[in-house]
Amino acid sequence: MDTWILPVLLLLTSYCCHGVLACPHLCTCYFSTNTTQVVCSGPSVSHFPLVGLPGNTTLLSIENTNLSSISAHHLEAVPFLQELHLSSNQLSSLPENLLKGLTHLHTLDLTGNQLEHLPPGVFHHAPLQNLVLRDNLLHRAESSWLPVNSNLTTLNLAGNHLDTIPTALLQNLPQLKTLDLSQNRLEKIAAGTLSTLSNLQRLHLEENKLNSIDPSAFHHNNKLTHLFLQENRLEKLPLGLLQGLHRLEVLTLNDNQLHFLPYGLLEKLPSLGASTGQGVDLSKNPWECKAKAAYLWKWLRANREVLFSPEDIQCRSPESLKGRPVLSLTEEEIQTE
Ligand SMILES: *[C@@H]1O[C@H](CO)[C@@H](O)[C@H](O)[C@H]1NC(C)=O
Ligand SMILES: *[C@@H]1O[C@H](CO)[C@@H](O)[C@H](O)[C@H]1NC(C)=O
Ligand SMILES: *[C@@H]1O[C@H](CO)[C@@H](O)[C@H](O)[C@H]1NC(C)=O
Ligand SMILES: *[C@@H]1O[C@H](CO)[C@@H](O)[C@H](O)[C@H]1NC(C)=O
To answer: Where does the signal sequence lie (predicted)?
Structure first.
């Protein structure tokens, strides 16, 4: 074989659009037995990388680029797609038929775009299991986005502008296991808003403006293992709130405005802190260390090993105990005050 043939052949196979190793300009392609992954990134990617895109691509990642539009025509080129990652781009809208024909697509990540509204039916065409819409500009999440009885197991709407729980949408998602509504503008959780989520395991409600939770809000979510409520505006918790949550392992209530815990709130939660790294965070609340605090004090003493940041569970009042860790109080101090 002439010495020039091999390099030329390599060039041809690398660059020719029908070549075995075709890969779009500015992208990297990884071929293995069952998957073809295409990863494109950088600000100079400003259009969908259609030319050279392998027809059997199973994962496509176009992240941290300048992509501002994407169409069903683009995605028709990759009918075997299973995962589509489009985070940190300039997308401000999606066409209704975007996912048409993507009968294998289970994961769609649209984190960090400028999506404010989405058309009805937008996620109907693919059998999605994981949908991430984190850090967009959504004020509402509509039930029309997903089909009734969708098989979605993860929905992430964190970092948007939602001011109510999207109950009608959640009613379409009986398989949901993880729901992230953190970093929105939620103020309350009314009765029944989460009651269709009987498979829910992880519920993220942290960093909202929650000041009220109905006592029955979680009563149908008895598979919950993780409940995140930190960095809200909760002043009190209703007795019975955690009733029936036998599988609850992690509960975070830190950085709220809690003054005291209703007597019995944390009983019958056998899984709390069951393994390492799990437990309860009650730190950074303005605890009132009066006689009413006896339940908190007793519970903390009996459950030291499940506490996160026990030193930061401190009395705000009375003045004489201000700044003292609740766990450091003596029985006399808690009773005489
Ligand atoms: C490829 O797929 C086959 C059949 O689905 C499976 O048995 C095999 O383990 C897969 N191989 C790899 C490397 O994932
Ligand atoms: C995808 O196509 C390339 C090029 O034809 C081939 O080498 C690879 O094995 C194919 N991968 C799959 C998952 O079919
Ligand atoms: C991104 O795209 C816009 C137009 O869509 C263009 O004006 C801008 O220069 C691009 N930015 C980069 C870093 O290429
Ligand atoms: C959910 O999955 C089941 C079983 O795989 C399937 O029959 C059903 O059509 C799926 N539902 C939707 C809305 O895709």
So the answer is: 1-22
- Could you tell which of 124, 128, 151 is best to mutate to test the pocket of ligand 4, judged by most ligand atoms within 8 Å of the CB? 151
- The CATH-assigned architecture of domain 24-178 is Alpha-Beta Horseshoe (3.80)
Q: What's the gap in Å between 68 CA and the centre of ligand 3?
A: 9
Summarised one tens digit per residue, pLDDT across range 164-187 is: 999 999 999 999 999 999 999 999
Q: Nearest 5°: CA angle at 207, between 317 and 310?
A: 45
Indicate whether residue 149 lines ligand 4 (CB < 6 A).
yes
Residue ranges of the chain that CATH labels 3.80.10.10: 24-178, 186-337
Task: Say yes or no: CB of residue 107 within 6 Å of ligand 3.
Answer: no
CA-nearest residue for atom 13, ligand 4, is 150
69 contacts 89 by C-beta, under 8 angstroms? no
d(CA 316, CA 332) in angstroms, rounded, equals 18
Residue 12, pLDDT > 50, answer no
Q: How far apart (Å, rounded) are the C-alpha atoms in residues 52 and 123?
A: 27
pTM above 0.85, yes or no: yes
Minimal-distance CA residue to ligand 1 atom 14: 34
Instruction: Burial-class residue 155 by CB neighbours within 10 Å (0-12, 13-18, 19+).
Output: buried
What tokens appear for 59 in the block?
Answer: 């994962």
Other Cβ atoms within 10 Å of 4 Cβ, number: 8
